[in-house]
Amino acid sequence: MNLSHPDQSMHSSSEGCLEDDKPDVMLPCFRRNMYDEPLASYSNGSIISQLLRKTIHNKRALEESHFYLSSSTAADSGQEDQSSVSSKDSTVEAASPSAHVSTGGSPEGEYSMTDHLQAKRARVENIIRVMAGSPNSRQHGDSERSDTDARDTREAREAYRENKRKQRLPQHQEHSVGGPASRRPGSSNSDNCNTKDEECHKLKEQLHSMQRLLRQLQEKFLQVYNQEDPEHDRDETKVDHDTSIASHYNSTDDDFERKNSRVTAECKDRMKVVGYLVHQRESQNLQETLKQELSRAVNDCVDRVFKKVSATGLELSPQQRMCSSPEIQINMGVDRKSQQAGSTQEQPQAEEASVKPRSLEYYESSEAKSPQDQTEALSLVVRKPAVTPLSSVTPTVKRPYPVHQAPFQFSYSTPLHDTQILEHLLKYGPHSNFGGLPCMPPSMDRTSPDSVDLPWDAIAMRSKVTSSHLGHHGRPSALGAVTVDNLCLPHVKIECGELQSMAERNPYMSLNIQEGLTPSHLKKAKLMFFYTRYPSSNVLKTFFPDVKFNRCITSQLIKWFSNFREFYYIQMEKFARQSIVDGISDVKDITVSRDSELFRALNMHYNKANDFHVPDRFLEVAEITLHEFYNAISAAKDSDASWKKAIYKVICKLDSDVPDEFKTSSYL
DNA sequence: AGTTTACCTG
DNA sequence: CAGGTAAACT
């Protein structure tokens, strides 16, 4: 219990610090020695070693201090040599010191004397063996050991250590040489002992203060983590307190638990030592403060969201506000509940039950009213029932919208929402045909040109308002059909959280918020192909404002146009070759008109319903493309593997701007 | 390294 | 139309 431990820890300080983490806190006074260990390797390492031994022994034998100091240093050097030598020996070494201690005898001085003498003897022998390697470092050791050889009584153990030293010498030569040698001067001198004692005392003071600081830090740490324990029961006893914390974290949100369980476990042990009464009082105050701040933040977020909504022109009806309020109250209720020191187990579950299951309930109910007609025929293009805004929404909500910063999920009661959707349906009818759109005269343009640079949500909201506004004007004809088509929105992979939730709460908004690409989008893309064959991703984002773009969606849209091009070029090549086969000798004889078979094929592919007036420019481009193919094939360039690339290069420059009508989501 | 494209396939 | 791949490009 005495010397063996400090010496051992001195050589395995790093391990000891890590392994003895808890004892460090629980036994600060003892742990203080551990803090000394790193210092031992420095210039005043001898002071530290003295301090260590003194603090251990001065309780029992103060009068022996003088003798002890002189001998302990010798023992220190000797034992350090031993342990350092044997540090590489794993199991045998671990057992030997303890056995040594037990046999060392109960009297303090006796044990230390015999032990040190043995160590010194071993050291002398060791020095003799390694004299050539480190001559100067052994000088003091020799003089010290000369007066202790007589007390050596255990030859067997000596031989054991000696062997170990012999084996390990080359590796630890530097340690055994540098450490003890640097430590020895002064420690063997009794005059220096007093001054060293003062140094020791100062160091001790420093250590004490540092330990106090550490304790304070630990307390603060505990307080911080206790703040996150909403239902902290402060009347529990120490042990119950710990268990209650553990149980609470087990019962809380999983994510939260994962984040804090480790720290909680660490804190649990420390809490047993730290004064609870004081820090609990402080932590209570912090807890209250944190909760108040959180509540305020939530309130601010709610206010901002609704302010934003109203500012965008989306006026929530009182009913809608009522719809949203319960959710807010639920959240606030949870917050309030967290302030109470109540039942710990039921709180998180209650929160879950108040939000998520309700949402599911709503989705299920709405789904029942509007049966799901989703088909997987199109793997990524999914149909969405007209009245189901979020029937199969994946809960993986990732991307937050910048405008809506509410940190919680909105949900709302179902009846009002459904009635409003029905209202909307009654206004516009269930027709979902896409036809007639582009044929509308320019005066009927529903979009303002400034919509290009508007943020996504602004466009979405504006377009929604526009569509509803037009609907009120009672001319649902073409536009109405288009708008209703919006009602058949996709319910694919909804990633955004807040705005999506907002949209769910507002049927008008939900018209314009989609995560996936719908058949309507495909239709629109095909029509856009009449204008642009190589749309940039920016163009796509501009003209699909109701689509929440992510990597996947963008790739899908790009792939669409790639497929469009593929078909387009295949047709071009086909008809070009056909022209050659038909014996057409002059390129000028090849024209593309609306009566052309080529155009019919293309129109059948991109405008199947034939309800879109294909721009003349597309006919020109098609003609140019056909000519390019004809010329290339005629020139036998098709023998080249990449003969089409030149044509692509030409065609890609023929893109024209897509009309603004395509920019609005209501155009779908 | 990631994106885009053409090409091929089903 | 989507998946896969390879090449080209950035």
TrEMBL record:
Gene it is expressed from: PROX2
Record has Nuclease as a keyword: no
Sample GO molecular function, one term: RNA polymerase II cis-regulatory region sequence-specific DNA binding
Region: Disordered, residue numbers: 1-23, 72-112, 132-196, 334-376
Listed SUPFAM superfamilies: Homeodomain-like
Composition bias type Basic and acidic residues, residue spans: 139-162
Keyword DNA-binding belongs to the record: yes
Xref: Gene3D superfamilies: Homeo-prospero domain
Native source species: Sparus aurata
PROSITE patterns from the UniProt entry: HOMEO_PROSPERO
Superkingdom field: Eukaryota
Example GO biological process: embryonic morphogenesis
Domain Prospero, residue spans: 514-668
Pfam families linked to this entry: HPD
Gene Ontology cellular-component terms listed: cytoplasm; nucleus
Primary residence: nucleus
Ranges of biased composition (kind: Polar residues): 1-15, 72-89, 339-348
Protein name in the entry: Prospero homeobox 2
Location(s), subcellular: Nucleus
Keywords: DNA-binding, Homeobox, Nucleus, Transcription, Transcription regulation
